[in-house]
Amino acid sequence: MRIQRRWLTGLLLATSFTMGGVLGASAQDDEALAYYRQAKIDWRQAAGQSLTIGLNKHPFTESLLPLIPQFRSLTGINVEYLILPEAEYFTKLVADLSQQRGEFSVIMTGPVRNWQYVPPNWILPLDDFLNNPKLTDLGWYKLDDFYPALIAANRWNGKTGGGVGEGPLYSLPVLEESYILAYRKDIFDQYNIKVPTTLEEMAEAARLVKKNAGIPGIVARGTPSVASMGTGFMSGLKAYTDGQWSEFDDKLNANFHDPRSVKFTETWIGMIRESGPPNWANMQWYDAMEAFTAGQAGMIADADFFAANYEDPKKSKVAGKVGYALIPAGQGGKPYAGLWTWALGISKATKNKEAAWLFVEWATAQRTLLNATLGYRNYNPARASIMNDPRVQEIMGAWGDGSYLKVVAKNLETARVAWTPQSERTRLGDIWARSLHEIYFQRMSAADALKKASNEVDKVLKEAGIK
Amino acid sequence: MRTTRTRHWRREKALPYLLLAPALVLLAGMVYPFGLGLYYSFTSYWLQYPNRFRFVWFDNYVDLMSEPLFARALEFTLGFTLAAVVVQVGLGLAVALFLHGRIPGRSVIRALMLLPLMIPPVITALMWKIMMASTNAGILNYMLSFLGVDPINWFGSTQGAVASVLIIDTWGNLPFVALILLGGLQALPTEPYEAARVDGAGPAAILRYVTLPLLSPFIVLVVLFRTMDSLRIFDVIYATTQGGPNDATTNLHIMAYQYSFQWYQMGKGMAQAIVLLLLVVIVSYLLMRLWNRASESTS
Q1: Is the peptide bond before B245 cis (omega within 30 degrees of 0)?
Q2: Structural domain count, chain B
Q3: Cis peptide leading into A157, omega within 30 of 0?
Q4: pTM of the predicted model, to two decimals?
């Protein structure tokens, strides 16, 4: 019954958005516009100007497109957009930003990406826009409705090696992604396996799942890319060291070969070798997510919002069978989880800065983001009000018999960007990921492979003039 | 009168240039990006550090030589090319000989053979990636299980990944090789065959001493095409392994892409692209000479 109602709600929302797009201003549009017009600003102050938005292919993007005619009606600003897959999107974006062509006015970005764009002064701080009453009605916009951890993640004082949460705000989040452990509750219950709270317990649980249920005990990202490093693995490593370990020491020397990091990596890779899937080294995030969704793994430590996939009975073989827990911690028991947000920022080279801000303000407004969550499964909400919306609670509250929302809420108390700010994060992550392959394929010991990774990263940072 | 002659003279003189214009425009369109790439290969061009742009002469090339991954990538590039050419030309020749014979449904088989050529390589790669799932959920492993073969770890092991890329590339390009060689077989003169049969030569001897020598210009031609393509293969690798695992399928093209578009080091990326280009040019030149020699000897 609940499923039918959810399906009906989705259908109604999707239909209304489509009709809105096709028929232009309908009664629903008028109602929606009335919501935005409650803001005490002149939405039409930049009427006649044009914007091009750079968008990554993503559920948030899908949610935005049908609403763009509404934005045009509201502001008189003409909006064009370019949507590209993630890798191509970032390449195109860097090409545009580096040449300051201003092709994109508004960009889809995020905390770790901003570290690349801030030092060369490619993107604008948003504080001046937020604090300008002509452009923003803060009472209506409700900045404090965003989870504080997400706003902090998008602030940076520009200092290499630190300063996240301080200084200017460079982008506004459109979703929340932090990392948790999802496990097959049915298998764990059936074979009396303890939900792990430490790495060692996790490795044991993985072994028991494989032995008893005959499926990989754990599934994880494994391609030799930065994308494999920042989620479950890095959160696990940080948690293992009670948040003490970082990729760099105080002098910005790479620190992968730290004994704690070596020990964690040995155990993690040992767990993957012993109990993971045979194709771990070729697994992208979606391969890992799909494997778990298809019932082909006992655990996965990755993005919390993957739950939307696990719990979708139309796609998933494990809907209703999944439990959720925090990433296993270290001896101090201190929880740690990384965090990422897709977010909207403004290119410094844009000619229409005010128009760009009005777009960001509109696209990250409460109503727009609520539509994105309800109509397009843009999980997890970046705003507390959306997370607490009864319709959202009805959907997400059922996941993991209610454990999902509790774990996410607990996680958000301490989740933060795990990476150390510096502009060569992608390269660093790629080098680090390659070292895991050297260990997995037993070409090198963990200590040697991680020492080699540290040396390579030091060389790159020196070459880039960062240290 | 004089004006007409002048106009006529001008037209006469301008005509060749006008006719050449499209080719010149095309040439400029090719030369400019190449020249720019060559220039960048001598610079420290790094997209996200525009202020650090400077001319560094051969530094990028020297750095490349000292990079361990470069040696591995070069080794894989050459090894893969050799394997791909041998496998594809060998199988292509077998298929061409098979289709050249009088077999029922030959025209249908030929038409079906064109199918892989119509599918973009990236789609081919993704299609095979799904079929080559490492468990029995992958259709290929499922089929092999009937032959008693244990599930093969196609993309998750280094040898499996190399073999997978080779298989996918072969599936996509075998029809091309087979069709060229089939065209060659059909164009061969019949007299040498008749003479060989009169002399009592069997099928193996005819193949060895008549068909292969006569077909050699076509063989060298497909070797040339397949060598050039295999040296710079990118799409199949990028869509399936992205150069992994453990850099087992990283060739020079993938490496150039990583430097240029993942890490934005355009100068270094371009230097690798230039090295790859030189490799393609040298190998192609040698094969062209071989082709000329083969053409002359058969004519």
Answers
A1: yes
A2: 2
A3: no
A4: 0.89
Nearest chain B Cα distance for residue A129, angstroms: 26
Residue A338 has pLDDT above 80, yes or no: yes
Q: Is A131 on the interface with B (CB under 8 A)?
A: no
Chain A residues 81-100 with CB within 8 Å of chain B: 87, 91, 94-95, 98-99
Residue B217 CA: distances (Å) to CA of A123, A354, A379, A410, B296 = 58, 66, 61, 71, 9
Q: Please, what are the domains in chain A?
A: 2-176+341-388 (3.40.190.10), 178-338+416-463 (3.40.190.10)
For this complex, say whether ipTM is above 0.90: no
Which amino acid, A70? Answer: Q
Token code pair at residue A271: 């767990």
Verify whether the Cβ–Cβ distance B156 to A278 is below 8 Å: yes
User: B106 and B25: one domain?
Assistant: no
In tens, the pLDDT along A171-197 reads: 999 999 999 999 999 999 999 999 999
The alpha carbon of A292 is separated from its chain's Cα centroid by a whole number of angstroms, namely: 19
- Where do the H-state alpha helices sit in A214-247? 232-240
Residues B14 and B83 in one domain: no
Q: Confidence class of residue A28 from pLDDT cuts 50, 70 and 90?
A: low
Identify the CA nearest to A342 among candidates A150, A178, A173.
Answer: A173
Give CA–CA dist A317/A457, Å, rounded.
41
B108 and B232 in a single domain? The answer is yes
The conformational region for residue B246 under phi > 0 = left, psi -120 to 50 = alpha, else beta, is left
- The alpha carbon of residue A239 is apart from the nearest alpha carbon of chain B, in Å, by 27
Do B6 and B132 have their domain in common?
no
User: Does residue B85 belong to any structural domain of this protein?
Assistant: yes
Q: Among candidates A342, A422, A392, which has minimal Cα distance to A150?
A: A342
What range defines the domain where residue B233 resides?
60-298
Query: How would you class A239 by CB atoms within 10 Å of its CB: exposed for 0-12, middle for 13-18, buried for 19 or more?
Result: buried
